[in-house]
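in:
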């Protein structure tokens, strides 16, 4: 079979802003959190993004409060906004070291009540709980595996919403079986479809990279293709560990595609991350 760098698979390309966030998460912290615009353009060019698209997307991320502009060596550059370093560190745990909850972990429940006059805070609170992967028991009661208690509490505190929410840990005592309820609290069918889509889009990618033994001193073309495949893979994967907060296997349907998808991502990460990092740092200096 041809070398992996010479036969790229056709994998759907994520949005430009999502690619930029992935690059910052993977490589910017090794460079003081700062990336020059010219370096971003060089890296995103490999992903098929033109310079105008990079500048436009960076501008949007600045308006959203994700990036902050500055000068580095007289050149335009951007760094992660203050406070986001901790968010990215927490993201590393979710994405690269996910934990699948056990039945004995129990649950964390978030009960909230927000005055009608502050409806915008209600939307903000629901958005945070959704982003954390919490399921919805009822309008004002949300649930997640117990091992996420500290993370949920931290995010509510960070957003200044603790006065509107009460957190509890506990076990489900009702009938029917918890697995039936989990299927109501979370949209498992949509999750299954996303996991299946990831498997369909990236299964051949792993086969292609493992078909050729890796060696020291890989060619620039191989390192470049590893960078393209890895950044694309991480970008398309990183939302899934938040939509699925590590629900216990015993409560999931048989042959849950999430388990195979988790293994596929872990294998791709092990195969591609070192080469992708080598290429990125060669550009970033």
């Amino acid at each position: 079979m041809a070398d992996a760098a010479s036969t790229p698979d056709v994998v759907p390309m994520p949005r430009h802003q999502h690619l930029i966030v992935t690059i910052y998460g993977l490589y910017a912290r090794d460079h003081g959190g700062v990336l020059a615009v010219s370096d971003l353009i060089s890296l995103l060019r490999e992903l098929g993004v033109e310079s105008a698209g990079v500048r436009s997307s960076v501008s949007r991320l600045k308006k959203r409060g994700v990036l902050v502009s500055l000068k580095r060596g007289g050149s335009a550059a951007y760094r992660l906004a203050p406070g986001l370093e901790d968010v990215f560190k927490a993201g590393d745990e979710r994405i690269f070291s996910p934990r699948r909850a056990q039945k004995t972990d129990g649950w964390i429940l978030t009960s909230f009540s927000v005055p009608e006059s502050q409806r915008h805070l209600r939307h903000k609170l629901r958005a945070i709980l959704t982003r954390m992967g919490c399921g919805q028991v009822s309008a004002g009661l949300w649930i997640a595996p117990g091992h996420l208690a500290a993370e949920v509490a931290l995010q509510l505190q960070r957003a200044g919403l603790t006065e509107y929410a009460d957190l509890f840990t506990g076990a489900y005592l009702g009938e029917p079986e918890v697995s039936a309820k989990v299927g109501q609290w979370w949209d498992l069918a949509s999750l299954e479809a996303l996991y299946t889509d990831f498997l369909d889009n990236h299964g051949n990618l792993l086969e292609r990279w493992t078909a050729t033994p890796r060696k020291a001193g890989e060619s620039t073309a191989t390192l470049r293709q590893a960078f393209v495949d890895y950044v694309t893979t991480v970008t398309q994967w990183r939302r899934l560990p938040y939509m699925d907060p590590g629900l216990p296997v015993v409560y999931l349907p048989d042959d849950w595609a999430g388990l195979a998808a988790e293994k596929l991502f872990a294998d791709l990460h092990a195969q591609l991350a070192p080469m992708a990092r080598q290429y990125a740092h060669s550009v970033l200096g």
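note: The CA atoms of residues 114 and 121 lie 7 Å apart.
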